[in-house]
Amino acid sequence: MHAKIGQLTLENVFLGEALAKADLFGISRGSLYYEPRPVCEDDLRLMRRIDELHMDYPFADSRMMKGLLLREGLTDGRLHVATCMKRMGIQALYRRPNTSKLAPGHKVYPYLLRKLTVTRPNRVWAMDITYIPMARGFVYLVAVLDWFSRKVLAWRLSTTLEAEPCVETLKEAMRRQGKPGIMNADQGNQFTSIDFIKVLKDADIQISMDGKGAWRDNVFVELL
Asked: What is the pLDDT of residues 26-80, one digit of tens each?
């Protein structure tokens, strides 16, 4: 116990020194980061099983997921299950009130596809990012899809949920296919980020965003 307290105190001291130096040199505190610890083997096995159950029960939230795991003899707590689901980017696929939290300063755009008839390629593109389990660890897949042809125009694998892979995938799709009239995505931080929105505005592309928790608004790329 004393060792843990001492270690925690020391880490806080190092963090305080780092923040003080950032302020001194005029560096943004947000630019400071640490290298994340690798996921332990037990959590990797748990996350793989959560992913498999999510495919069968896409409407299961962390509470229901805990119950499904308990039936298999896995006694992990709900908060631990919720943490693993968040790490994988997995959410229950149903509409929930007031659950989408936007990053400060990020704007949400209206959903433009309701009752819209798409009759040709490049009229509407859709974009999403999802978790993929690997033999050891996991990655994220970001993909751009044409609503008319259902064709995947560009895709990329990433180890983070940051905006940059989404921006690069969008640019790659535009290099290959031109540009869409409308780009639709969810309200995730990646798609409301300044860099992502700038690419769309510079190309004069209309921006459409799903409603909060409304996965059906982007149903084709969700099914992919």
From this structure: 666 555 554 556 778 888 889 989 988 887 787 788 888 998 898 899 888 989 9
CA angle 162, 63, 39 (to 5 degrees): 45
Q: Is 190 within 8 Å of 166 (Cβ atoms)?
A: yes
Positive/negative CA dihedral, 142, 146, 152, 155: negative
Domain contains 50: yes
Task: Kindly state the average pLDDT of the residues 9-31.
Answer: 55
Instruction: Tell whether 29 and 42 lie within a shared domain.
Output: no
> What is the distance between the alpha carbons of residues 57 and 61, in angstroms, rounded to a whole number?
9
Q: Are strands 138-146 and 182-185 parallel, antiparallel or unpaired?
A: unpaired
The Cα–Cα gap between 85 and 81 comes to: 6
Tell me which residue range forms the domain holding 211: 124-223
Q: DSSP code of 218?
A: G
Length of the chain: 224
Q: How far apart are CA 129 and CA 140, in angstroms?
A: 7
Query: Which tokens is 182 given?
Result: 């409308």
Q: What is the pTM of this model?
A: 0.55
Q: Measure the CA–CA gap between 198 and 175, rounded to whole angstroms.
A: 16
